[in-house]
């Protein structure tokens, strides 16, 4: 039976393999562009620019992106199922002088409502759905924690990207078998989400989708045995240049989608 994934056993490796790589840098760069737009939109709904926002980083791990938000003066509640990830998060947040703006909660995302005394302006739900047994239920619970006019920011492991990767690698038998999770790849997500389903869950919950971005639209498909010459700056610039255009957006290994709850 597949259970929600707890990263206590792999917290340090997860941190190094995901965040300390070009993959992590691309993710952080393109999603932060979206978050800047989100914060601008939320500022327009507040009393004025500079108002402190309440942000929930659900399943936030080490809080890389929410720390950037905290630096702007906003208040963050970060919850995670893994106590080890929270320990690493606390160390990193303290090192960056941001502990006063954080509340760290050791709980699964499905229980975070028990730790919130009022709705929040922004929920970050990034790279978590693919590790859950019931991602839709978790998403719907988190949508309930967003106040009117607030925004839900969701990044998920893209089914289209997983399928395309297996096709171009010749894993056709694996595709025919339904691409079951391979347990030997410990950092490979347990499942991938179909974009049209995630978009429907958001709109059925009454949210209006404001934007979509493909995360790593071509980087993960590059053939290392036949790779050309390029710089990291070129890689980032090209990913940013096409990540919001079709068909590249829908082929991202992850997709970031953000949606707003109506004021009324």
Tell me what the structure shows.
There is one protein chain. This protein is 37% helix and 19% strand. The protein has nine helices and seven strands. The chain has helices at residues 11-19, 22-45, 64-70, 83-95, 135-143, 159-168, 172-176, 195-204, 232-242; strands at residues 54-58, 75-80, 102-106, 120-126, 146-157, 208-215, 254-260. α3 (64-70) links the parallel β1 (54-58) and β2. α2 packs across α9.
Overview features:
alpha/beta; seven-stranded mixed β-sheet; 264 residues; 37% helix; 9 helices
Beta-strand percent range = 15-25%
Give the C-alpha Rg: 18 Å
Would you list the SSEs in sequence order as H and E? HHEHEHEEHEHHHEHE
Strand order within the widest sheet?
3-2-1-4-5-7-6
The overall average pLDDT, rounded, is: 90
SS-based structural class? alpha/beta
Distance separating the two termini: 41 Å
Number of helices: 9
In short:
With 264 residues, this protein is an alpha/beta fold. Helices cover 37% and strands 19% of the residues. The chain contains 9 helices and 7 strands, in the order H-H-E-H-E-H-E-E-H-E-H-H-H-E-H-E.
Question: Topology, pairings included?
Answer:
Layout: H1 11-19, H2 22-45, E1 54-58, H3 64-70, E2 75-80, H4 83-95, E3 102-106, E4 120-126, H5 135-143, E5 146-157, H6 159-168, H7 172-176, H8 195-204, E6 208-215, H9 232-242, E7 254-260
Parallel strand pairs: 1-2, 1-4, 2-3, 4-5
Antiparallel strand pairs: 5-7, 6-7
């Amino acid at each position: 039976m597949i259970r929600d994934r707890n990263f206590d056993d792999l917290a340090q490796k997860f941190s190094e393999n995901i965040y300390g790589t070009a993959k992590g840098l691309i993710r952080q760069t393109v999603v932060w562009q979206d978050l800047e737009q989100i914060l601008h939109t939320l500022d327009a709904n507040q009393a004025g620019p500079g108002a402190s926002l309440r942000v929930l980083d659900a399943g936030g791990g080490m809080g890389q992106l929410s720390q950037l938000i905290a630096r702007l003066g906003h208040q963050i509640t970060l919850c995670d199922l893994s106590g080890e990830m929270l320990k690493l998060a606390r160390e990193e947040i303290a090192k960056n002088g941001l502990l006063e703006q954080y509340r760290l909660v050791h709980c699964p995302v499905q229980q975070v409502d028990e730790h919130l005394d009022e709705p929040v302006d922004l929920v970050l739900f990034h790279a978590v759905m693919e590790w859950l047994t019931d991602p839709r239920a978790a998403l719907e619970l988190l949508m309930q924690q967003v106040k009117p006019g607030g925004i839900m920011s969701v990044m998920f492991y893209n089914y289209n990207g997983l399928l395309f990767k297996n096709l171009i690698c010749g894993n056709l038998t694996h595709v025919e078998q339904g691409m079951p999770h391979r347990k030997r790849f410990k950092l490979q997500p347990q499942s991938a989400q179909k974009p049209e389903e995630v978009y429907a869950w958001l709109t059925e919950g009454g949210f209006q989708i404001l934007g979509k971005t493909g995360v790593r639209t071509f980087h993960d498909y590059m053939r290392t045995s036949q790779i050309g010459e390029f710089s990291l700056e070129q890689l980032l610039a090209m990913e940013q240049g096409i990540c919001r255009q079709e068909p590249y957006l829908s082929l991202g290994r992850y997709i970031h989608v953000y949606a707003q709850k109506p004021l009324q």
